[in-house]
Amino acid sequence: LPGHTGGTAIGILVRGEFRTRERAFRLLLSWGASFFPGELSSKEVCISSALRSGNRRFAELLESELGGRRCEIVDLPSRPELNGKTCVVEEYLKGRDEYIVTLESGRKESLTISGANLKRRDRTPDDCGYCVEFKNGRAVRHEFDSSEECREFLTMVDERRRPAVTEDDEARADRAAAELLAELDLEDAVVKQQPRCIDKGRSPGKRRAGGKKCKRK
C-alpha cells in the first residue's frame, strides 16, 4: 500500500540501480505487491526502469498479467499430479502466451505452462511457501507443499517458544490466589465490624454540635 508520501516499496526500489534489485522486485511481486498510478509506483515506470538497465526479459515479465507472481497450477491435463502445487513465474514467453515457472517444492522443477493453467496465489503469513527459522545461531529454511503444512509449522514454533508451565508453577499460582482471597475476606470482615456514626440530634438543614454518638451494628 502507498505510504503517507504516496510512495510504495516497488517505487522505492525503482529509484536505485534496477539490475542489483531484481531479486527484491521478484520477492515483492510474489507477496502480492501492487502497482499504483503515480510518478514512481506505476507498472509503466518499473518497465521503463528495467529497459533502461538493459533487462528486457524482466520488462516483458512485468508487462504480462502473472509476471513475477506466485501461482497455483490448475487444470493441467498432461500432469495432473501438479494440480494444486505452487510455483513462481520466472519468465514470460510473449510470442506463445506461456510462462516459464519454477515449482516451489521438491526438486524446483522448471516448466513451461499456459496462463490458462495458472491461478495467482500470493504469499501470505499463513501460506508463505517457506519459512526461515533462526536456530542455534544458524538460518534454517523450511519449505511446505501446502498451506496446511505451513500453518502447522508456525503453530508448532509458537508453542515451542512459550515458557513451559510445571506443576510447581501451578501450585505457586494456586497458593497466591488463595492468599489473595484470604486477604480480601479479612478486609471485608474488618469493614463490617467498624462502628457506624449516627447524629441523633441532626435535623434537616441543621447540625447540633456534640450531637454525634457512635452505635455498633
From TrEMBL:
Organism: Thalassiosira oceanica
Superkingdom of origin organism: Eukaryota
Chain segments carrying region Disordered: 195-217
Compositionally biased region (Basic residues): 203-217
Species classification: Eukaryota, Sar, Stramenopiles, Ochrophyta, Bacillariophyta
Name by which UniProt lists this protein: Uncharacterized protein
